[in-house]
């Protein structure tokens, strides 16, 4: 059911975001305690503000009310993905070249499953990420098909 709700929501929100020149980052529909939450994460190259979230929330709410695809009561939340935005699609990784990111893999690459560093390149099949280990830098080549999760990261 959750997959169906997110795909219906995506089809409803995509034209709204296109009109407002905003980007869909992610949609999640899940139960937390006794309540269901439909969360829509949006962004743009120039960032988003509270007005953007409010506009999308209002227009999406109207579409959800009109089509009524969700049977149970739920809370709709529209927000920014935050500073550590998930990188869900190949196009997200292309945009992240040159940025500091965190990656976890399904299986070990050179003996490890977690990497944090600067994404130097992504050709659609392989990511090149430069990781600093103590005082030395090492570039790892990670097959895209092995990436479980990727997100922007804050460098300390």
Features:
156 residues; 3 helices; alpha+beta; 3-stranded mixed beta sheet; 28% helix; single chain; 5-stranded antiparallel beta sheet
Question: How would you portray this structure in words?
Answer:
The chain is an alpha+beta fold and 156 residues long. The chain has helices spanning 2-20, 50-67, 90-95; strands spanning 23-32, 35-43, 74-79, 100-109, 112-122, 126-133, 136-143, 147-152. The model has no long low-confidence stretch (mean pLDDT 93).
Q: What would you report as the Rg, rounded to the nearest angstrom?
A: 18 Å
- Structure class: alpha+beta
Note the beta-strand portion. 35-45%
SSE string, helix = H, strand = E? Answer: HEEHEHEEEEE
Enumerate the strands of the largest sheet in spatial order, edge to edge or round the barrel: 7-6-5-4-8
Shape descriptor: elongated
The span between the termini is: 40 Å
Helix content: 25-40%
Residue-averaged pLDDT: 93
Counting H and I runs of at least 4 residues, what is the number of helices?
A: 3
Largest sheet, if any?
Answer: 5 strands, antiparallel
How many beta-strand elements? 8
Low-confidence stretches: none
């Amino acid at each position: 059911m959750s997959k169906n709700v997110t795909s219906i929501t995506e089809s409803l929100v995509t034209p709204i975001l296109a009109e407002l020149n905003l980007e869909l980052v992610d949609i999640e529909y899940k139960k937390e305690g006794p309540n269901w939450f439909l969360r829509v994460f949006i962004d743009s190259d120039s960032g988003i503000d509270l007005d953007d979230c409010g506009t999308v929330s209002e227009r999406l709410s109207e579409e959800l009310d009109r089509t009524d695809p969700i049977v149970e009561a739920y809370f709709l939340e529209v927000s920014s993905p935050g500073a550590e935005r998930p990188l869900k699609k190949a196009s997200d990784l292309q945009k992240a070249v040159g940025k500091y990111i965190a990656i976890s893999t399904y299986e070990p690459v050179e003996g490890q499953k977690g990497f944090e560093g600067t994404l130097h390149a992504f050709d659609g099949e392989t990511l090149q990420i430069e990781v600093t280990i103590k005082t030395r830098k090492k570039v790892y080549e990670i097959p895209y098909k092995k990436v479980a999760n990727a997100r922007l990261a804050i460098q300390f």
